[in-house]
């Protein structure tokens, strides 16, 4: 009904009460010097969920904790760690919730099975609707 | 007194909706007589009463009647008039009243002017319409009375939150409601046609303007919301696949599919049960979206207007409307014949293909939106976001875009591939050229690449239906299609460019320092503290220069509101024809420098221009259809008049002859 | 179309209704729980967050005695609310190690002076490193750590009066 009103309320509402006075972590708002590493970090950050906000990745959140997560991600990438290893490290701590890239697991298989079903269903409908009548 | 008048009108309107329902239902059994004759007047009167009730609510807000609970909670005597008015629908109760008002006005309008369908189908439609309205009246009167009085009038209203005093916030939600209401009218027509088994091209023609209208409003709503999120959130994102965004996208997808299948039904008398099904699905998506947003079942933390009781009520309405319609569909659809046949390679073939693709994409969005809910019920937590939605929906959207490029070139019924071989070869050549150019000049991800490659031929092909025609004689509705399809290409081009070529620069710079992003040079001149009515802000003075061009001053702000305490970023934008520079100022670092976030987003504005073009296409199509109907009506009236004239002449001649 | 396919939409819709109705009745769990329960504490060595108390490191937790690890900050309002209950835990002999998230020493000192000090050590986690490593998603949170340094329990949100016996029970379980 008011999708965007609420979306915005959600996005904008960073209560001051939970705000600290510390400057942000060094790499929260600073890019890595190596553009390749920065691109890898950016790609990873866009798929990690901010734990303090609604439906935002850590790549687009002003929450201090998201800043600290960005710092961690950039530091680890700079240290040569693989993006997927960093994701695995976070998933080990927060569960699947922290990652926007669903793994195929007992918890998520329908997310992949249902689209396959939809694909088959779509093919069937198309065959019925068009294929069988093509010869008319 | 005024609120009581409104409440009384609401009760009366509810009674009339009940009358409309029983009258229409009795007409289906064939023994209605007098009752059936009351259906149309009841619908018209109900619309007027609802309008009256809503006007009374508006009036209570205009005069800030603080004895009314809703006014005391959501308004303030010091508010500017426009926001007092907007306050009337900027809350749960008022927005429900606005919804039901628009709904019953639409019903009244149909009752007043729509004469093309068989009377029994019309009565069934109005009965369905009364049924839907009755549910909302029950909701309002039993659990969300907007006219509720306070035992003691409040001294002053609570609603002076300037964050919510935004012209966008005031008019964005009603835009979406209008879309939802339009879909509910289409739903009533579908149910009416299903009840009387009169699924005819005429039915599709009658339903079409309502679908188009709903679709235009939804398109505008989504476009505006997207731009607003882009502008407000300070990170340059324009679509987050947030549940609330999906809640508005799903009805749009369904409406788009419905629109095209109704066109097939109107033109060729095919896809009968499919169109009915989509009519039901489109409205159910608006209701599901409403439910998800209002019940707080998905957006939990920052819930606004969320209440489990309301959630249960909406769910009950959803069960009644949609469950009932789907049951009816299961029972009846088997007895509705499929209609005309057509070949694979035909306009219908392409439209059916894209209908199925749109429905499949809708299925993906629905699955991804609801899946976290399902996982939670099984005590698991998962996140579904862009990395899921983007590729999964692309599986269906990319083939759809391809077919959309050639579809309008095809003839109805069946066509020959040889006839369109030349344009087809040209389009493929263009696509390959774009692919080669982009592939050689840049490294681009698969999805943005496909977007770029498809958007250019699609933009060109959109105009091909005009080829060889006198432009002044092309029907408005055809112009509508051309513009809307072109709009889709424009938006796609913007999206693909934005995700492929955005340049980002995050930096901490001292006063006087300079940063570069793409071919822009941005200098930080200074940072000032500025104050607004209920906020203070840090405002950065930036000078941006592109290449050797004219320097432009911009001043992004970081605002701190104190009632309620919130932080917002006010980004500063410089718009050029080929993109936007997006600048945000952040915190000060430990060593006294300032955080700046700078983006160059090539062609990002095309996303919203595209959305506006799509809506414009819809408006042209409505105008074309309605004008066409009026013309047909005039012609019919004239021929009727001529016939009766002739009859009269003949009668006169006869009398004269008799006399002679 | 086959008859059964016509019932498919209704079936799917009924499934959605069931799910939605069930979820409406369920209390909403907003918290992201740590999945580190039962696993050893991650390695850390944090500098002191205030001048008067030592910092904190993993080795402090492996002397055979169960402890609480309290993640807090001087800028966090619920932390003020939980201060008296942490004090009552302290009075009952519970050792609490504090981890101050993104905090300045002077603010920490001011907070402790105003609301009391239940801590034996406070480590300064300026970049939320330990917080991330332990799977905590907010302040305040309290973890029960057993004598071998294994994480046994996570309490999300401020500790209230009713949580005090609960935490003591968890500590006793951890001691066994």
Secondary structure class of chain B reads alpha+beta
Beta-strand residue fraction of chain A: under 5%
Q: What is the chain-wise order of helices and strands of chain A?
A: HHHHH
Distance between the termini of chain A: 46 Å
Task: Give a count of the beta strands of chain A, DSSP E runs of length 2 or more.
Answer: 0
Largest sheet of chain A: none
How does the overall form of chain B come out from the CA principal axes? globular
Query: How would you sum up the major sheet of chain B?
Result: 6 strands, antiparallel
What's the multimeric state? Answer: heterotrimer
State the name of the first-level CATH class of the largest domain in chain A. Answer: Mainly Alpha
List strands and helices in order, with pairings:
The complex is a heterotrimer of chains A (136), B (660) and C (176).
Chain A: H1 3-12, H2 35-45, H3 64-78, H4 83-94, H5 109-129
Helix pairs in contact in A: 2-3
Chain B: H1 2-29, H2 34-37, H3 39-62, H4 69-74, H5 81-89, H6 92-113, H7 119-143, H8 167-196, H9 201-233, H10 243-268, H11 272-295, H12 308-332, H13 347-377, H14 386-406, H15 421-441, H16 446-461, H17 476-501, E1 503-509, E2 514-517, E3 520-531, E4 535-546, E5 552-554, E6 557-562, E7 565-570, E8 572-576, E9 579-588, E10 594-602, H18 605-659
Antiparallel strand pairs in B: 1-10, 2-3, 3-4, 4-5, 4-6, 6-7, 8-9, 9-10
Helix pairs in contact in B: 1-3, 1-7, 3-5, 3-6, 5-8, 6-7, 6-8, 7-8, 7-12, 8-9, 8-11, 9-10, 9-18, 10-11, 10-13, 11-12, 13-14, 14-16, 15-16, 16-17, 17-18
Chain C: H1 3-25, E1 45-46, E2 56-57, E3 67-72, H2 77-91, E4 96-101, H3 105-115, E5 119-125, H4 129-134, E6 141-145, E7 151-156, H5 163-175
Parallel strand pairs in C: 3-4, 4-5
Antiparallel strand pairs in C: 1-2, 3-6, 6-7
């Amino acid at each position: 009904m008011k999708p965007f009103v609420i979306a915005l309320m959600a996005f904008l509402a960073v209560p001051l009460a939970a705000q600290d006075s510390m400057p942000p972590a060094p790499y929260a708002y600073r890019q890595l010097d190596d553009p390749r590493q920065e691109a890898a970090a950016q790609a990873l950050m866009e798929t990690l969920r901010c734990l303090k906000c609604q439906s935002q990745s850590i790549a687009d959140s002003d929450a201090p904790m998201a800043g600290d997560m960005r710092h961690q991600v950039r530091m680890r990438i700079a240290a040569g760690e693989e993006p997927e290893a960093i994701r695995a490290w976070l998933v080990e701590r927060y569960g699947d919730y922290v990652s926007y890239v669903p793994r195929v697991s007992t918890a998520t298989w329908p997310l992949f099975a249902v689209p396959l079903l939809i694909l088959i269903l779509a093919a069937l409908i198309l065959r019925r609707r068009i294929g069988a009548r093509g010869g008319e | 007194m005024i609120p009581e008048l409104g409440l009384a009108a609401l009760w009366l309107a509810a009674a009339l909706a009940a009358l409309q329902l029983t009258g229409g239902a009795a007409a289906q059994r064939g023994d209605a007589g007098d009752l059936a004759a009351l259906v149309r007047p009841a619908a018209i009167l109900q619309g007027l009463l609802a309008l009256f009730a809503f006007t009374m609510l508006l009036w209570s807000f205009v005069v800030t009647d603080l004895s009314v609970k809703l006014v005391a909670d959501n308004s303030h005597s010091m508010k500017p008039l426009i926001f007092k008015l907007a306050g009337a629908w900027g809350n749960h109760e008022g927005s429900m009243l606005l919804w039901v008002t628009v709904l019953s006005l639409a019903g009244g309008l149909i009752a007043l002017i729509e004469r093309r369908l068989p009377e029994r189908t019309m009565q069934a439609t109005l009965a369905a319409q009364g049924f839907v309205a009755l549910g909302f009246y029950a909701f309002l009167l039993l659990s969300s009375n907007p006219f509720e009085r306070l035992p003691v009038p409040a001294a002053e209203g609570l609603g002076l939150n300037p964050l919510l005093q935004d012209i966008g916030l005031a008019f964005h939600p009603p835009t979406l409601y209008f879309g939802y209401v339009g879909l509910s009218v289409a739903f009533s027509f579908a149910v009416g046609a299903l009840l009387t088994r009169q699924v005819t091209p005429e039915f599709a023609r009658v339903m079409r303007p309502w679908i188009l209208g709903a679709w235009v409003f939804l398109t505008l709503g989504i476009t505006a919301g997207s731009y607003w999120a882009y502008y407000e959130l300070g990170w340059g994102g324009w679509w987050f696949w947030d549940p609330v965004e999906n809640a508005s996208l799903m009805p749009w997808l369904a409406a788009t599919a419905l629109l095209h299948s109704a066109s097939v039904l109107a033109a060729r008398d095919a896809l009968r049960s499919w169109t009915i099904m989509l009519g039901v699905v489109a409205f159910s998506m608006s209701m599901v979206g409403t439910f998800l947003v209002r019940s707080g079942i998905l957006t939990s933390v920052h819930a606004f207007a969320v209440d489990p009781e309301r959630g249960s009520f909406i769910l009950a309405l959803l069960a009644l409307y949609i469950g009932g319609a789907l049951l009816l569909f299961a029972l009846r659809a088997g007895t509705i014949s499929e209609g005309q046949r057509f070949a694979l390679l035909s306009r219908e073939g392409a439209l059916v293909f894209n209908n199925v693709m749109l429905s499949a994409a809708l299925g993906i969005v629905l699955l991804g939106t609801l899946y976290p809910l399902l996982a939670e019920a099984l005590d698991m937590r998962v996140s579904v976001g862009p990395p899921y939605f983007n590729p999964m929906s692309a599986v269906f959207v990319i083939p759809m875009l391809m077919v959309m490029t050639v579809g309008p070139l095809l003839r109805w019924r069946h066509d020959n591939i040889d006839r369109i071989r030349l344009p087809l070869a040209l389009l493929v050549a263009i696509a390959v050229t774009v692919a080669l150019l982009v592939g050689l000049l840049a490294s681009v991800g698969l999805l943005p690449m496909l977007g770029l490659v498809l958007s250019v031929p699609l933009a060109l092909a959109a105009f091909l239906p005009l080829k060889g025609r006198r432009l002044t004689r092309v029907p408005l509705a055809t112009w509508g299609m051309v513009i809307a399809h072109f709009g889709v290409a424009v938006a796609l081009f913007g999206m693909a460019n934005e995700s492929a070529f955005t340049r980002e620069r995050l930096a901490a710079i001292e006063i006087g320092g300079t940063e570069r992003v793409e071919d822009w040079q941005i200098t930080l001149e200074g940072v000032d503290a500025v104050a607004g009515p209920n906020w203070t802000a840090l405002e950065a003075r930036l000078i941006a220069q592109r290449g050797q061009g004219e320097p432009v001053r911009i001043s992004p702000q970081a605002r701190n509101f104190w009632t309620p305490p919130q932080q917002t970023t006010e980004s500063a934008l410089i718009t050029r024809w080929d993109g936007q520079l997006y600048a945000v100022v952040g915190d000060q670092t430990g060593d006294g420098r300032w955080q700046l976030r700078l983006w160059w987003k090539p062609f990002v504005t095309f996303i919203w221009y595209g959305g506006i073009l799509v809506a414009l296409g819809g408006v042209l199509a409505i105008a074309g259809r309605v004008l066409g109907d009026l013309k047909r009506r005039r012609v019919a009236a004239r021929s009727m008049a001529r016939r009766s004239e002739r009859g009269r002449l003949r009668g006169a001649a006869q009398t004269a002859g008799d006399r002679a | 179309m086959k008859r059964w396919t016509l019932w498919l939409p209704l079936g799917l819709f009924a499934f959605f209704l069931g799910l939605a109705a069930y979820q409406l009745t369920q209390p909403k769990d907003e918290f992201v729980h740590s999945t580190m329960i039962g696993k050893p504490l991650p390695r850390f060595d944090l500098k002191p967050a205030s001048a008067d108390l030592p910092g904190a490191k993993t080795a402090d937790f492996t002397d055979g005695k169960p402890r609480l690890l309290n993640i807090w900050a001087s800028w966090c309002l619920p932390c003020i609310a939980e201060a008296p209950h942490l004090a009552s835990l302290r009075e009952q002999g519970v050792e609490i190690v504090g981890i101050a998230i993104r905090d300045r020493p002077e603010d920490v000192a001011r907070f402790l002076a105003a609301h009391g000090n239940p801590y034996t050590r406070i480590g300064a986690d300026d970049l939320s490193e330990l917080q991330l490593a332990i799977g905590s998603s907010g302040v305040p949170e309290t973890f029960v750590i057993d004598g071998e340094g294994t994480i046994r329990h996570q309490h999300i949100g401020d500790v209230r009066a009713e949580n005090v016996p609960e935490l003591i029970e968890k500590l006793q379980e951890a001691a066994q």
